[in-house]
Amino acid sequence: MTIAFPPPDEAILARRDAIIAGLRACLPADCVIESEDERRAFETDALTAYRKMPLAVALPRTTQEVAAVMKFCHEAGVKVVARGAGTSLSGGAIPQEDAVILGLAKMSQVLDVNFADRTMRVQAGITNLAISNAVMHEGFFYAPDPSSQLACTIGGNIGMNSGGAHCLKYGVTTNNVLGVTMVLVDGTIVEIGGDALDAPGYDLLGVIVGSEGQLGIVTEATVRILRAAEGARPVLFGFDSSEKAGECVAAIIAAGIVPVAMEFMDKPAVEICEAFAHAGYPLDVEALLIIEVEGSDAEMDAMLARIVEIAKKHNVKTIRESKSALETALIWKGRKSAFGATGRVADYICMDGTIPTGQLPYVLKRMDEIVKSYGLRVANVFHAGDGNLHPLILYNVNDPEEARKAEAAGNDILTLCVDVGGCLTGEHGVGIEKRDLMRHQFTEAELHQQQRVRAVFDPHWLLNPAKVFPLDGRLA
Amino acid sequence: MSEIITPKTEADAIAFVTEARAHKKPIRIEGQGTKNGIGRPQQDAVTLSSRALTGITLYEPAEMVIRALSGTTVKELEETLATKGQRLPFEPMDHRALLSTTGEPTVGGMVASNISGPRRIMAGACRDSLIGVRMVTGRGEAISSGGRVMKNVTGLDLVKLTAGSWGTLGLFTELTFKVLPITETSITLMLHGLSPARAVEVMAAALGSPYEVSGAAHLSPSIDRVAKTLLRLEGFEASVVYRADALSKILAPFGALDRVKGDASEVLWRNVRDARFLVGSETENVWRVSIAPSKAAAWLDKTGALASRWFMDWGGGLIWFATHAPDAATLLRQANAEFKAHATLIRAPLSVRANVDVFEPQSDAIQKISMGIKSAFDPDGLFNTGRMSAGL
């Protein structure tokens, strides 16, 4: 528990009743939550070690209602923390005592589907999976697929610029959103981008995606949808060492093949997932790769044959090609249940650094040393094609000393990622979790430049203010 | 012609900007100036060019990442990538033929204008492949954003914000891209004689198929007598043939599909990429219009009478529009307002560019934010000020 929150503004706390009355003037009765019991559901997100009770919770149903709430909060000088489904692993949606939670849960509609333009207009509170589900009957899908896609919202995805397992081919959120409706801090409603492939002027959408609720409240989005390939099929490779697996990944890319996904699991992760999912993963290997290709049956056969040939040159120990939809589902079930399965054997914190893939063997070795030096264990699952690591550090949440050590080990791993040329977060966002490490990646001039851009939208630090930037040394 | 300063290092660039800032001296930012004719006229005392900041500083083919100093030519970057069978995914346009300019396009200029060619519909725009920038701001500070890894959400994404800012926010010094393998082969399917509406329909059917169309363009009869609709497939030989067959079956109701291969196919797409169909007459103003494809035909219904020549790329999402009408801007922008499109004047004499908005005017709220962004990077308005709009 080493991450600090700014001390709450006593003057705001003292005006709580008046602020709630103000929110009630903007919204119907069932859209404002004030009782302690009901607020408790909003006190944390997926970074559950940290909790703060919000001042109140507003759950508007329309962009106009969001605008009314923002206008009121702006005039009253009240801080606002936007919230989708509260699945942030970096604490991006954790409130503070003097802030109103603005939840988009009631705005979850599909507004328009345009198959000819391959776009969709949705409200920000719709879940990631519901977007794909709405167009699946025509063979289309929305590409970014974070592991939490069943629960997480597109608004949260935009806030964190979420990725997923298939972004090697399809990109992340920023590559798949064309426009948003956003409510500015003072309640002004603006349209950014639109339904064309580019927009005039500065790429404001580019800076809004990934801004962690600090530039405005996104209420609607136009996203790109894609026609799914005729089929998709994974192959599973087991290797004697992670170096060999890493070399195989590099060789596949060097051969001009970009598979739709390349997932890596180390031995501890394989053991945990196999015990849970019974996916038939080999238990006598040090590293496992799941590589998926897309296309017609003939195309996939040809592509997989090339990939298998490359793997053989790199001394692959186990090869399992999926022969059926059932087998494909099973292979993915193991990987996709990694977090849940790990949660059954121990508490864990999930890190999210990215490294240049060439540094993989070195970083795996160093991570193991780091975690062992704290007397803890680590399991690794990650997106091998793009170097986005998700080490799961196992610890006991009820042991404060272990919790402190797990957090320290996580920080060491993230600084290692930066030191080898990578970054602190690949797809989970900075939130509060990595806020105090930002100086390891950015110079003071760089942090100030980002804050100047932030100040264009929110000069008084009202929007999700405890996040992203270290609390000290901020530009006023 | 103003004086040209060509720093060889970032430190030299910082020293120059710091000095210019002290004297509030307005600066034109450029690479080799191949796109100088785009934008509103600027008042500048001196040109700061990246052309001596050259060299590829990192290339990791196995990671599909390349980094170069901003004055490196696009040609050098692409040649280096080709030695390892890779390329920039977004197929950047070369403006020299259209604008009758000389010099070599630089990597910095490519990013500053966020130019993307036909493959944009499948592989994303320049800004989507750009994963790291380093620049000197109007404060005379060097800052980086992004990095060399393709998944990175650390802090505000100034990479995207500065891509396409036309040199108004700073001088890029170094840029990093993710790249893709060069595909083994390509086939272009060609249909003849379709109306704009029918062409957009066939392109939408192709792009909405599972067959990974990497180019969808339509040349009107003003380009080549009979309208031609082009659909490109790229990949491994067997896969391309399979997809061409499958697509031909689906699209048969639209007419016969000819196949163009090899050099002929490549030349076609280079001409689309560079808008070479509109090269020539200097009295023709050339507009580039972005629109949702399904509205393109209706937009053309409103404006087509003004066009001397036009063609569509991006499945109808991009319209290249040449006109002799000096006052076309008014009508085009009326149509843009109706269809939520936007237009940029790419080729026109200075006198025209001085009197019309070269870039689509923005709402007051967006313009206010944009002015704030400009001032956050360039508080004294030193860099290319006025190129995009008054004060920007």
How would you describe what is shown here?
The complex is a heterodimer of chains A (476) and B (392). Chain A has helices spanning 10-14, 16-26, 36-39, 63-76, 128-135, 154-160, 167-170, 204-208, 242-254, 267-277, 297-313, 325-336, 338-345, 360-373, 400-419, 438-441, 444-457, and strands spanning 32-33, 56-58, 79-83, 99-103, 110-114, 119-123, 140-141, 177-183, 189-193, 217-224, 226-227, 232-239, 261-266, 287-294, 318-321, 347-350, 377-383, 388-395. Chain A is an alpha+beta fold. Chain A has 4 domains: 10-106, Uridine Diphospho-n-acetylenolpyruvylglucosamine Reductase, domain 2 (2-Layer Sandwich), CATH 3.30.43.10; 110-227, 2-Layer Sandwich (Uridine Diphospho-n-acetylenolpyruvylglucosamine Reductase, domain 3); 232-338, Alpha-Beta Plaits (2-Layer Sandwich); 346-429, Alpha-Beta Plaits. In chain A, the strands form 4 sheets. A 7-stranded antiparallel β-sheet of chain A has the order 15-12-14-13-17-18-16, with helices on both faces. In chain A, helix 2 (16-26) runs antiparallel to helix 4. Chain A is globular, with a radius of gyration of 23 Å. The mean pLDDT of chain A is 95. In chain B, a hairpin with a 4-residue loop joins strand 4 and strand 5 (65-69). In chain B, helix 12 packs antiparallel against helix 13. Chain B has 3 domains: 49-181, Uridine Diphospho-n-acetylenolpyruvylglucosamine Reductase, domain 3 (2-Layer Sandwich), CATH 3.30.465; 185-271, ACT domain (Alpha-Beta Plaits); 276-353, Alpha-Beta Plaits (2-Layer Sandwich). Chain B is α+β, with helices and mostly antiparallel strands. The longest helix of chain B has 15 residues, at 237-251. The interface between A and B is large, with 91 and 85 residues.
